[in-house]
Design brief:
single chain; alpha+beta; 14 helices; flat
Length: about 350
């Protein structure tokens, strides 16, 4: 790449960041915030692996995430009140029902100094929510805090600190930093950081302009997206993920993609086509919470709609093909019929 191309790519990246800053100022958030919150709400279990990665904890798969209040109203010096919405404030409860730690994780597309203020506001409000008052003493516990930076550069810190100076001494509140640029596909899948997958294409953002104008580079990028989807499929088959989680991950990946690659039609359309899948509406999410059978049914339909053969779906879910047909109504039968029709249509005359 020559110097001019590098300058163009950097300028395009700056323009994208500026547009996102305007969007955030006007609407109070970006599509990246929406994707992060949806992942937090619908794939909460996957946060446990993120916590283990950031804070070097060893929570097992049997641990649970319990959310705290995510909206707080902050009083300003002029007497006004403003609402603050935190991306994720939660407690992890172990398999025995014991609360093991409070956490606050924020997501930011571009590093800026306002993040320290936001984390301090959120952390102190979360601490007040669970404060304990006894006689003339109030005890507050600040959560373990971290920021996930979707973009980062030479100036992005490895950690941040808030220094609290009191009459009784000085205390430093550490804020851990997680950078998307530190994780490739092998480390994401190897460490079960599935939560990060919707944001993976931030790592390739700087290549979008070249990919848009170069067929070979575009094929390389789309091949990487295809491998990502294949590894997600394998994770479902190996029971590391449910098909429902896979669909949410890809749905949120497309939300991120449409914003991130909005100026690169070929990149956006090609990657979106590979990600596939239909949008999961709120009613499906509600049904998913109703029980194991509903969960199994949604897993089955999701895999069938994404083109997996009924025989393979039945094997993954450990049910018979007859049970699969009962779970999905006509979906499995239609899939078999379509496969048969395609086979006949493709047969040599």
């Amino acid at each position: 790449m020559n110097k001019t191309e590098g300058t163009d790519n950097e300028a395009a990246s700056v323009d994208a960041k500026n547009q996102e800053a305007v969007t955030e100022a006007v609407s109070g958030g970006t599509p990246y915030d929406d994707a992060f919150r949806t992942m937090t709400n619908d794939c909460a279990d996957l946060l446990i692996f993120v916590v283990n990665e950031i804070f070097k904890t060893k929570y097992s798969a049997g641990a649970r995430v319990v959310f705290g209040q995510n909206e707080h109203f902050i009083s300003a010096m002029d007497g006004g009140v403003s609402k603050r919405v935190t991306d994720s404030s939660f407690t992890i409860v172990d398999e025995f029902g014991t609360a093991r730690g409070k956490y606050l994780i924020e997501c930011q597309s571009t590093p800026d100094s306002s993040m320290l203020i936001r984390v301090f506001e959120y952390a102190t409000q979360a601490a007040l929510d669970d404060s304990v008052i006894s006689a003339n003493r109030m005890t507050v516990v600040l959560p373990n805090a971290a920021v996930l930076y979707l973009r980062s550069g030479r100036g992005t810190p490895e950690k941040m600190e808030i220094e609290l100076v009191t009459s009784g001494g000085t205390v430093v509140f550490d804020i851990s930093v997680m950078k998307m640029t530190d994780y490739d596909l092998d480390s994401i899948f190897g460490r079960k950081l599935y939560f990060l997958i919707p944001f993976y294409l931030f790592n390739r953002e700087k290549d979008f302009k070249e990919c848009e104008n170069d067929d070979e580079r575009l094929a390389g990028l789309l091949g990487e997206v295809s491998r990502l989807v294949s590894r997600l499929d394998a994770a479902v088959e190996e029971k590391e993920l449910t098909a429902y989680q896979r669909r949410i991950i890809l749905e949120m990946g497309k939300v991120v993609l449409r914003q991130l690659a909005r100026n690169y039609r070929r990149v956006k359309e090609g990657a979106e086509r590979i990600m596939g899948g239909k949008v999961i509406d709120l009613e499906v999410r509600r049904i998913f919470q109703e029980g194991d059978r509903s969960r199994l049914m949604i897993d089955a339909k999701a895999m069938l709609e994404d083109g997996l053969e009924p025989e393979r779906v039945a094997r993954i879910l450990k049910v018979t093909e007859e049970e699969l047909a009962q779970l999905t109504g006509n979906a499995a039968g239609n899939a078999v019929g379509n496969a048969a029709s395609n086979a006949v249509g493709n047969a040599p005359m």
